Each structure stands twice: as C-alpha cells, then as structure tokens.
## 1
Amino acid sequence: MNIAVAQSGGPTCAINASLVGVFKQGFKTKKIDAVFGSINGIEGIINDELIDLKTVIRTNEDMELLRQTPSTMLGSCRYKLPDYEKDSVVYEKILSCLTKHRIEIFIYIGGNDSMDTVVKLSDYFERIGSDIKVIGVPKTIDNDLPVTDHTPGFGSAAKYVAASVQEIIRDSSVYSIDSVTIVEIMGRHAGWLAASTCMLKANGEEAPHLIYLPERSFSVKNFIEDVRKEQAKHKAVIIAVSEGIKIDPEEYPLESFRSGAEDVFGHKYLSGVGKCLERIIAAELNCKVRSIELNVMQRCSSHICSKTDIDEAEEIGAMALGAALSGNTGKMMCFKRVSDVPYAINIEMVDAREVANKEKFFPDKWINKAGNNVLPEAEKYFLPLIQGEVKIKMKNGMPVHFKR
Amino acid sequence: MNIAVAQSGGPTCAINASLVGVFKQGFKTKKIDAVFGSINGIEGIINDELIDLKTVIRTNEDMELLRQTPSTMLGSCRYKLPDYEKDSVVYEKILSCLTKHRIEIFIYIGGNDSMDTVVKLSDYFERIGSDIKVIGVPKTIDNDLPVTDHTPGFGSAAKYVAASVQEIIRDSSVYSIDSVTIVEIMGRHAGWLAASTCMLKANGEEAPHLIYLPERSFSVKNFIEDVRKEQAKHKAVIIAVSEGIKIDPEEYPLESFRSGAEDVFGHKYLSGVGKCLERIIAAELNCKVRSIELNVMQRCSSHICSKTDIDEAEEIGAMALGAALSGNTGKMMCFKRVSDVPYAINIEMVDAREVANKEKFFPDKWINKAGNNVLPEAEKYFLPLIQGEVKIKMKNGMPVHFKR
C-alpha cells in the first residue's frame, strides 16, 4: 500500500519537520511501498498532482536540510472542502486519485481549517465503506488549536520573537530621549505569541512593559494612560501587541488603517495595529515613537528555530502514521503535557471534530487584572517550548534550504 | 594616563565588539591606568558622565557577552559639535572633563557624523597645543563611509538580511496563486544593504528578482513593467528595495506615505517606501502583494551576526588605540582589502576629514543597465563579510545580553 501526506495553511518553521517524520516512518514501515506528497495541500489530491517523496528526499542530508527549511516544501492551500451533501464531486475526485495510487492513509499537516478537512474526509470514507484512514497533524504558529498542549511551529516562532524583542529592547535604549517602541506580533484572535514575550523576564528583562492581547477588550484611553505610567518609570517603553486587538472606531477613528479583505475562510487580513497605536501615541504623547511589525519573519525564521519544536514536530508526524496504521481515522495527534519541570509530554489522539474550526485562547488566568500584561505563571508554560538550538547547516555564510 | 571611548549614531551588532577591542587593548597597555566609557557618545564627556569600564566589564565572560550584545552598551547620541569659531564653550567643557580625568586619548566609534566630531576635536586640541589624541573607529550598517573597504556592523546586517530574505522567499512560495513580495531594506542614500541580497544567488536562489537602489533614479512606470515581466517568469516575485529610493510625486502622487520629520543632522526619517510600492502594485496589477519592512532588526539581530564582522570590529577597535598611542590624531581607522579569495584585509588609517560628512555609494559598475538588479561581480565583494557564526551564549533558550 501507499500513503499520502500534504501540508496546509500558513507556513511555519516546523511543518517540514513533520513531513520528515511521516516520510521516515513510512520508509521504515515494510508494508508501505511509497510515500506520496500532495502538491498544495488537498488540492494536489483533487488535481492528481502527487510526487513520490523518495524521488526528491534522497539522502539523510536531504532530511536534515528539510528539517531546517521553513515554509512548506509541498506548497500549501487554503482550500475548504464543500459539504458532501451539497457537492460530492470533489470527494469523488479525491477517492479516485487515492484509489488510483493505492493510497490507504492520508496525513494532513495543518491548522483548524485543515482539521475540518480531516473530519469531512474521514466521515466520507466511513460513509462509503472505504478503509482509507485520515489523520491530522497540528501546526500553527498561533498556538490556538484546542485540546493539544501546544502546536508544532509555535515554539520556533516564540523563540524568534523573544530573541528579536530582546534585541529591539537593546536597540531602543541607546538614546537619552524618551521613546516608545511598539512591536506588533502575529495572532488574529489568540494572543499566545505576543504573550510569550513574557519569557524575557526569565533573562532579566523588565520589558515588554506592556502586553496587549485580543483576549481582552482594548481601550485607547486606558492604553494612553498605561503608556504614560510606564514613561514615568522607563526612558524607553517597550510594548508587545497582538495584531488582533480591536480598536473601537467609536472611541478612536483609526479604522482606515485596517484592511477589509477576507480570505476564503472568512478571516480578515489584519495589519497595521502597531502603526495605529504609533499614530495614537504620536498624537497624544509628546515623545519619539516607533512601531515594528515582525511580519512573516515570525513564522519562517528557521535560522533560530527551537530544537524542541523541530524534534517534536518530527515525532508527532511519525506517530500520526503509526496511529493510522493502527486503524484510527478522523483523529488529530496532540501533545499532553506531563510536567513543566522537567518538561515532559505525551503524544495522544483527539477526535478532529474537537479541533476543526475551533480556537483556543490564551488563558484569562494568566492575564493581569488591568489587561495590559501577562502574569509570571505563564513563563513555565512557554519556556520549555523554545529550548535548544538546531545546528543549522550553512553555506557561504547563509543557511542552506532544501529545494525540490 | 587614562583614555576614553564613546559610541555614537545608530546601533549595530558590532559596535560593542569595537568597544571590547579598545578596552582589552587598554587593559593590556601598561601606561594606561583606566579606560573610561562616555555615556551617550560625546555628550557624556560634555556632561562629565564617565564610567570606569573595568567596574562594569569584570570578566572574560563579560567581554564575550558584550561582543554578542547588539546596540551600544554606553548609549549613543546624534549630537553635532558646533564650529569652534561660533561656540567654543562646549570645547572647553570637553577639555575640562578630559583634563580632570587625565584622559589623553579619545576613541570615537561612529559613522560619518561622528568623524565630523573627530575632525573638530583633533583640530581644537592641536590649535590649543594640547597633546590629547582623537581617533575614529568606523561603524554603520549602511556601509557608506568613504575610503574604508567596508564598515563594522555591515557584515552582520547583511547576514541577517540574506538569511531573512531567503526565508521570506520560502514563505512567499507556498501558495499556487501569483504574488509579489516587496522587502524594504535600510539605506537612506546608499543601497549597499539592499544590494547585498544578490549574495543569495551564491546559494542557488533566483530571487530577489528585482533590486532597486537609491543610486539610480526610480521610475514607477518602469517598475510596474519590470514586475509584469518577472511575473511572466515566476509565480512568486520577490523584490528588494532600499528605503531611500525616491518616488517622483509628479509621476505617482504617493508622497503622503513619507514622513517629513528631520533629525538634527538634517536626515529625513524615511519609511514606507515598501508600503508605497505595495499599494502601487495592488492598484496597477491584479495580484496578491505584500510588503515587509526589515526595520531595526537589520541593525540589531546579533543572534545571527557575522563572525568576520565581530572579529574585525574588535580588531579595528584595538588598533585605533594603538594608532593613538603612536601619536596619531584626527584619523579614522579603515579596512583595505588585499584579496577577495582568500579574503584578506589590512587595517590602516585615513584622515578623518576624508570621511566626515561624506558618503560612499554602491558602485555604478555593479548595477545592471536597467537599474533593477545587481551584477554577479558584486558577490565576491559581499560574501567574505558575512562568513562565520559567533557561538551565541544562550540562557532559557534565548541569547544572553550584557547589561551594565
């Protein structure tokens, strides 16, 4: 028999490591003849665009390079399957492609949108009496998937953000004049990544002095007051803010900075919250102010990825295949934390229905009362996820990426 | 006798390494009793804010940490000395402070503005018959200082930019739809840093497909045509652009994106060229477009600094002190390249007058005829500067910074 694997949703530093996990495990399993990679997520199966992965991942060195290469080697998609009742044609195309290539297991690496695909496909195969198994592998830098302790990709993003914000703290502190620096961090609805900057306290940083998350409502009036208070204490005030915080246009008319565009899943492309807050500070307080958007570097800076994250991403990919081989379907693999110190996790399964289209928010108990910072208790959750460095292979002074 | 050292201008990853070079050399030199650090550049000498560096840099480990810490440990300034004829008071304050602390050598680490200070101060000391020597140590990520082959700080910035743009290339290539990604890179008047992205070709990248530098005039009409042509060849077009390119408001009325603010040296704070071009592409071509500003991370991302850069920065600092001890004054230390392969440089001296307030532009001979890319010949200039990685000391999964 053969198996297929695909990658979906936004890039991370760890999604190729999960692919390596599936591929290696498939290679080791005698009854699996070929591991096919589907180009651009589920679209590759719908359009019969598959590649036999052993023709592109040829050596152990290829696997090592793929582990340190960000983004998705097989491309990605944001395709959402229609309901079977409304449109069965695409399901029949998928069945036809999988049958043609003798594929009995499909592993889908993605976020909560991808788990919707895992649910729909596994339901479909059960409904028609097919034995094809579908298993999801979580991934997202947003860390917003339910049930799982955390998601592959998040640790590397958090490590980059922590290192960069620490460097920005140094950069912001050189001049003798007062300044405010706002760092905009990814997270549409869940503030995990912005919240993770609280880890800098473990290395003796006082900053970020303020952290704003979409989990709490945002008041421009309180914000200005918060900044004023911090300015009384610090020459260079550093603020971490989730891109997803909402400025009430009735309170402060700056909505024109927002893009109204939506993707096919109905997500708005948010951007520019940092810039909004910069203009507010410039208008309301008389000081030097700068906003910095960490942008896509947050999800693709594999040159400073977390070894824990990459190793876990590979392992959860391997275990997904194991779960399918044991007869499971419609499940997502997940991490259960056994202990913070020493850090220990188990890899288990959860019904993909409990994850599909759902979000997990940063816990309210870890946000301070004023809603402008994260409590020290959150540190022990975050810290294990960024531990360790991958020895990055370099050529000409630059990281080497795997290319197919 | 004692000596003083100060840091000035915008932060880099290498300016603390030059400080370490001065400090270590001072410590080794028997006739030097103390190395004083001046807080916030020359302002610390004017205001008599000095610290004895051995009270803060206590161990070899401190020195190692300082070498891997970005920005300026002593703070910085953008203070410009008045002409002596117009205002001699500040010169007398400087003399009084240096005399009080028995300081006979002043080492100023900075850019072309700082070299103006080196010229004015050394002229002043000669005029009044003082034996105090003033030597400049170059630093700027912009690489725009005359005479010297390159500037400390540039190699680390170029290494971060190369790694990040390569990661952005991976990130931009995941979806099946056409896209344009614009990366805005620092460089007000000189395009060295944006030009350095040509190094990615050495690692097999075709991108950036287009590189725009302030050394050539920019035409919006040609730009749109360039992008259209690249789109015919590449699904994901990647563009590197210097922040300093000028969009003619008569050709395209987008000047409102620019900030008109000026600093005390008359520099305009440029920002938003990437955003301008993003809006132009969105309006003129029907495709997904994103702009990314690498922002201050370019000058402070010491977690991926160039070992060559850091080592050279330390060495040129040490040699500056040597030059002063040999009786030189009013000079800036500079690199002379002996050979590209194998890479070899000498450290020499140049009259600071040849550098002060002057800029060195990216050579026209290395820009292609169309003015939208960099020629392969530039690679051999850039590549040696980003070689080698500093083993960064980590704690809790994050780099450790030196703090005084």
## 2
Amino acid sequence: MVQALIFDVFGTCVDWRSSVARDVAQQFPGVHALAFADAWRAEYDPAMARIRDGARGYIALDVLHRENLDRVSARFGVTAPDPEGLNRAWERLDPWPDVVPGLRAMKEKAIIAPCSNGSIALMTRLARYGGLPWDCILGAEIAQDYKPSHAVYHASCAALQLPPDQVMMVAAHNSDLVAARAAGLKTGFVPRPTEHGPGQTIDLEPAEAWDLIAPDFPSLAEQLT
Amino acid sequence: MVQALIFDVFGTCVDWRSSVARDVAQQFPGVHALAFADAWRAEYDPAMARIRDGARGYIALDVLHRENLDRVSARFGVTAPDPEGLNRAWERLDPWPDVVPGLRAMKEKAIIAPCSNGSIALMTRLARYGGLPWDCILGAEIAQDYKPSHAVYHASCAALQLPPDQVMMVAAHNSDLVAARAAGLKTGFVPRPTEHGPGQTIDLEPAEAWDLIAPDFPSLAEQLT
C-alpha cells in the first residue's frame, strides 16, 4: 500500500537541542547553551513564515540559520569566534538511538527519504554524520517552499512519481501531520517527549487518529504491512 | 580538495544494454533484444535535445523513455503486453561489478551522488535495485534541464553548496566530461569498453587529460587524496 515513507528530521529523527547546545558550549563558554539552542531554534519558524507568505523568495535553511545566529548572538551579547563553523552544528545532530535501526528496517519495505525544511546540502551532510540510510533527499528545496505548505509534501510525492495516498509522512509533530493529511498523504506519529527538554508540554500524544502511531522507529517498521 | 563526486549513471555505473535487453526478451519473444535495446537507447538523446533546445519544457526521462518505447515498438512491428512494466526496465539495471565496492570506498572520502539525466524517482529505484549507496540524488530533475547543459552540473554543485572546482564529475563518456570541465568541475574518467557491446568503438580511451583516469571505481577511490 504505502510505497514510500518521508520523514520530518529535526526533532523526529535527530536530537537537535542537545547537539546544537554541545557546539554552542564550545564557542560560548559561560552562556547557557541549551537556552541559546532553544532561542536559535525559536527563530526558525518566523524566518520560514516570511518565505511561505511570499514576502521573501526561497532561501535555503542554512542561510536562515546563519541570519538567526547573528540575531540570537546579539541578544545574548556574544560574538561567535567562528560563526560559519557554529552554523554547521546543524549538520552534526545526533540521531535518536532508535532511528538508524528503524530506518534500516523500514528501507526493506519502502522508499525512505527526509521531507524536511533543511536543504539538500544540510540533509546530505546530516545523513553522512549520523548514518541515516536515505534513498534520496526530498523536502523544502525541491519544492522551493517550506512546510507546512502543501507544496512541499506534494513536490516530494511528485519527485517519487507516487500519488500522495501511497506516501506516509512520519513526524513527532502533530502540526506536520495535520498538514500532510490535508495534502492527501498517509500519516505516522512517533513521539519525541524530550525533544524540547525534560519539561516538554507539546506533542506528547497524538492529536488525531493518525494512520500509524508507534513509540519508536523499529515499532513503526513492524507495523508496516 | 574534492568534496563531492557526482556520477554519470547509464553506462558509467550500470550496464543498461544487457539489462534492458533481458526485459525486452521477456516481452518480445523472437525480437533481437539487444538490437531493440540499442534502438530504444538511440532515441534518448534526440528526445532530450528538444528539451535542451527549449522546444519542449522539462519532462522526466521516464516519460521520454515511454514515448520512445512506443516509437521503437512500432518500428520493430511489436506491441508490448505490458508497456508500463517494460518501461520500468530502466529501474532494474545491473551495476558493473566494480561499482558498489568502489562507491562504498569513495563514500568514505567524499559525498557521492548521481548526476544523471534520469529522474529522482528513476535514480532512487535504480539505487535500491542495485544497492548504490548514494548520499543524495542530483542531476537533471533538480536543474529541470538535461546534460550536457551546464545548468545540470551547476545545479548539482549548488545543491551541495559547493563551488564547481570542489566537485568531480565521473563518467565513462568523454562528451560528459568535456561539458563538466567547461562548467568548471573536476573530471574523472573510467572506461566502460563493453557498454555498447563487443564491437564498441567510442569512449575506449580518455580524449583529454582528465584530472583522474582509472580502470575501475575502486582504483578511482584509491587515487582520491
């Protein structure tokens, strides 16, 4: 039935928060590294929103991250000794421990690809860093738009020459799945209850009856028929 | 120095001729399968030329293959019982025996990706069939143009956020490398002296002093510093 599984990456596949904080701590001794990582990430959606709304043409997420780094650095009153190097922290995000074995199992049953807002370059380097065994890289760049715009889900299905109902979007974020379902895709939910740290209050549970719900990637792989 | 290696696929990585002939023989008993495969392949460049020249908008190679199948079938006086299935022969092309071990060795040293005229869907399924361990899929579809247009090489480098002189195009076809070099890329030549069968007369030798020349993919991997 489902010929391809496409994945949210930041949060769903990789632990961006502690990974980015690790690099922040190296460049900014004395700064609260997790707070800096949270603040950097908080700039993510507003930056993409301007592109989704048409106020700005498509620009790769790497450039938005770099702009946001300057903004957050100023707010924290610090200057990175190597801002380009720090920006590449987003290429060195650790996968959650279940992700690589789970993706390997899913790859036996279907095409697997990221459908992330990260660029092709970023997703490629992240896959090499973490050993993510993608079949190809889909997502924002081939659509020249950002999730949750339906164009991103549709462009990813079109690149595989598959109708949306033969493609499942897998995410730890209910909002991503709301958009994917509205775009006609199947949906799979895997919670990541510590993505935002120990006090996380959102996305702890599925908000709708998603097509598949699993506690981790290997369990999701087992549910695939 | 070279951060990424991008590859021609049909002929360079996979033996399209005998693989396509194998499927042709199943659907057309009594037809000279290798002659049919050659005739089908011969329609490839003229079909792309119309798109390169702007006479037709970008259309995925899968569609061009399907149109060309009808044309060649008519010329041979046959009708495929399952033309869609036969068209998918291009997703089941055997890699040359040195390719998978060679790509694995190269992947340890640099990003590896196809820069083919095949679509993302075609390259993805071909990689799954043959176990080609690509990091991502580049080439014609992300450029919306066909090689040897420089746009295809440049779009592939841009997707990796690398300058052309940090990317090496690897091909068994001198014409591909002429274009890649003119577009500013490094070049690597690996001959495939039986791509067109035992009587092959072209591309038996490097036509220029390419940056790297190797008898097979593992040898090319060893030459990478």
